[in-house]
Structure prediction request, 226 residues.
Amino acid sequence: DAGVIQSPRHEVTEMGQEVTLRCKPISGHNSLFWYRQTMMRGLELLIYFNNNVPIDDSGMPEDRFSAKMPNASFSTLKIQPSEPRDSAVYFCASSFGGRMAKNIQYFGAGTRLSVL
Amino acid sequence: GQSLEQPSEVTAVEGAIVQINCTYQTSGFYGLSWYQQHDGGAPTFLSYNALDGLEETGRFSSFLSRSDSYGYLLLQELQMKDSASYFCAVRDAAGGKLIFGQGTELSVKP
Prediction:
């Protein structure tokens, strides 16, 4: 398996623009997670899905952020409008199985977002 | 809620043994996990403890004491490539998501 695939790897945009990050989880995994990582705040969970259904979006910063998972093999994280403080590395991760297996998450390579 | 504490940085020399501690507070416990992240890379799973005791995986071992809400990651025969950040993580009370510590940056010196 190719692992969790994220695109783009790097994104540079101007403040006010819409940004869409994409993620393809590992086939057969039923949970998908979006994280944001910065030096100041560390690794923060934004939202996670279980069987394509959003379960917990309490980490989504504000209404400018939205996430969808239309099917088991694809998810998007959208920021509209983007702001400089959104600059960070965004990771997607997936996991499968029951209670024990959920401790093991497989991360994508991340998208490094810079908002100018 | 859940919270984890781990040292921000640790320095050791090549060939040595280093221990990275993690204390946690959580309502409900579903195990303690460890992840490694090299600079510019993605976190990768290292180890997981659900029960008390030591789990060994090659040069890495992880220990858990549930009564003390404490665990550690032990790295033996340190190599330069072990220089990375190490995160401990617990699952939340509902058991669905991982809560990560702030990470420990390990620097291995020659």
